[in-house]
Amino acid sequence: MGQQPILTVNNLNIDVSTPYGVTRTVRDVSFKIEAGKVFGLVGESGSGKTMTCMSLLNLLPDEAKVVKGSIQFRNKDILNYSEEDMRKVRGSEIATIMQNPMTAFNPVRTIGRHFIETLRTHLPITKHQAREMAVAYLEKMDLPYPKNLLKQYPFQLSGGMLQRVMIAITMSLNPSILIADEPTTALDATNQLQILKQLNWLRKEYDTGILLVSHDLGVIAQLADEVAVMYGGYIVEKAPVFKLFNRPMHPYTRVLLESRIGLTRRKTKIVKHISVPPPNLINRENTCPFLERCEDADHTCSSYNLELKEYEKDHLVRCLKSR
Amino acid sequence: MGWFIVKRLTSLIPILFGISLITFILLHLTPGDPAIAYLRASHIPPTDEAVAALRVELGLDKPLYAQYVEWLGKAVQLDLGMSYLSKKSVWDEIMLHFFPTVQLTFASCILIVVISLPIGMISAIFKGKLVDQLSRIIAFVSVSMPAFWFGFLLIYFLSVKLDLFPVLGRGTFAHLVLPSLTLSFAYIGTYTRLLRASMLENLNEPFVMYARARGLRGRLIVSRHVLKKSLLPVLTGLGMSFGNMLSGVVIVETVFAWPGMGQLFVTSILNRDYPMIQGCLLFMGVIFVVCNLLVDIAYSFLDPRIRWEGEK
């Protein structure tokens, strides 16, 4: 490590107003993304992963708002950017791979139009030049017959192909940060592996820093350098990938890992965790979000004010019981 | 693409056959004797002998299926018989009245598109804002105001008071303005709301989010991504309305004394001019079906998914 991070998120807090009240979906989230490194974000649905991603692009939905914190991109806070400045950053500096490639493309526009419009938004080039660039990058992604591909419509391609097209579009602008929000969730296992290999290749080739969001620990283990586990809007544990997998400290991380490797062993424990509903985040106090589901919790937990503590070097845990 | 059109064209054959059959049977189910109607229209007292003689002459004494085959055989060659009323060829009469209707329809459609698209787009983009509220009011007024009243209002203010346009009839370009405005007005509300709803739906699609995440300009996202996809339902509706308008708009044509299909049709019904009614019905049916075919083809241009399904 020791490198200057490209993107630094500090104490990010995001509120979402719902018909039932205000929810703090992201609480005190801090992390760094360095060039050529992959930062993994794990967590169940509703834990705040996607909201964190959207805020990095300044594309939060209307009902969500950053209430505290900063997002430093190359030492400038992008939360202060004007919409036009931010627009220029999107795609060219901070790029995204969407969760579901089948719905991310406009069904009435060809792949070529998607590709060329993106290039021409950020680069002063002609349509012809853009097309040639597109062909070159599609080839790099091992997509067959790239010229033909440009004339095709999204629904004529498989999910895996579309995901690779998306990566090709992303890479053609050589961004310094890539946000990959569940890049493999909508794909089958063969395609998943291929996409992961390609993501790995491009971070090496282009030195791109990747924010890899997933609820699949296998995906994270394969690609990430550092991992943060999110629960109830908090980062509950953050560590280099091997430390996290070898010595999970937070009870939630442990459950997460156990539920993966030990479906037959310790079945009862997992069932217990699932039978308790996930925490209601509306108007919630600053208590541990995992309180209701935690096995190790006792009366001291409910009064405890949560802080992320360094358990050992680079291994941060947000739990009273973890020492 | 070519295959798609061929497939659609073949599917027209049974539909057209059905239209002709229904047209023919419908008229023979209605009470009243065509022979008597013919005599009345010609101001001849319908005595028993006269009726009997005429029935033979018109072929009404033959069995129904024979009449149908004969009628259809001629209809295919564009011979729709002779009007009882004017004693002219039905086909010629229809052609004479069809052109004014085509003119009116095209003018109205242009107005509908030119007015509804911007309003619908703007009210979708500024959802809930003042512009949106205003467009909602316009839409309500447009849908609920009867055409004959709106037509008279236009005549009263723009023709009589301000003397900007001629009151009635057909001739110059100025004659076209008020009727087409009246005709299109009722549709504008519908299409404004339709486009608005369709755009709002598409604005929430993931492809819009992805387009924004790629840094595309807002204007480009709306015009190239959202609008094109949102036009699909509007186009379907517009095609149907087009067919509707082409088969004659009785009220507007009556208010403005516009010599179109609607006028011809109503006059022929009032006079029980059987060949003319049959001819008009068949013609309108064909026009309507052809309009839908054209919409389908246009649709497949806008939405590649339909095109490719046809090829599979």
From TrEMBL, chain A:
Note the superkingdom of the native organism.
Answer: Bacteria
Concerning InterPro entries, the annotation shows:
AAA+_ATPase, ABC_Ni/Peptide_Import, ABC_transporter-like_ATP-bd, ABC_transporter-like_CS, Oligopep_ABC_C, P-loop_NTPase
> For this chain's UniProt record, which GO biological process terms are given?
peptide transport
Q: Where in the cell is it found?
A: Cell membrane
One Pfam family name is ABC_tran
**Membrane topology per the record?**
Peripheral membrane protein
Q: Name one GO cellular component term.
A: plasma membrane
PROSITE patterns annotated for this entry?
A: ABC_TRANSPORTER_1, ABC_TRANSPORTER_2
Give the transmembrane region(s). Answer: none
Keywords carried by this UniProt record: ATP-binding, Cell membrane, Membrane, Nucleotide-binding, Transport
Instruction: List the SUPFAM superfamilies.
Output: P-loop containing nucleoside triphosphate hydrolases
Q: Which GO terms describe its molecular function?
A: ATP binding; ATP hydrolysis activity
Coiled-coil positions: none
NCBIfam families given for it?
A: oligo_HPY
Name of the featured protein: Nickel import ATP-binding protein NikD
Which source organism does the UniProt entry give?
A: Domibacillus aminovorans
Automatic annotation (TrEMBL), chain B:
Transmembrane regions listed in the UniProt entry: 12-30, 104-126, 138-160, 172-190, 231-256, 276-302
The main location is membrane
Q: Which UniProt keywords apply?
A: Cell membrane, Ion transport, Membrane, Nickel, Nickel transport, Transmembrane, Transmembrane helix, Transport
What InterPro entries does the record tag this protein with? BPD_transp_1_N, CntB, MetI-like, MetI-like_sf, Opp2B
- Quick one: a GO cellular component term? plasma membrane
Q: Residue ranges of the ABC transmembrane type-1 domain?
A: 98-299
* Gene3D superfamilies membership: MetI-like (1.10.3720.10)
Q: Which Pfam families does UniProt cross-reference here?
A: BPD_transp_1, BPD_transp_1_N
Give compartment(s). Cell membrane
Topology relative to the lipid bilayer, per the entry, is: Multi-pass membrane protein
Give the Gene Ontology MF terms in alphabetical order: nickel cation transmembrane transporter activity
PANTHER family referenced in this protein's UniProt entry, alphabetically: DIPEPTIDE TRANSPORT SYSTEM PERMEASE PROTEIN DPPB-RELATED
Q: Whom does it interact with, and what assembly results? A: The complex is composed of two ATP-binding proteins (NikD and NikE), two transmembrane proteins (NikB and NikC) and a solute-binding protein (NikA).
Q: Of which family is this protein a member? A: Belongs to the binding-protein-dependent transport system permease family. OppBC subfamily.
Q: What protein name applies here?
A: Nickel import system permease protein NikB
Q: In which organism is this protein found? A: Domibacillus aminovorans
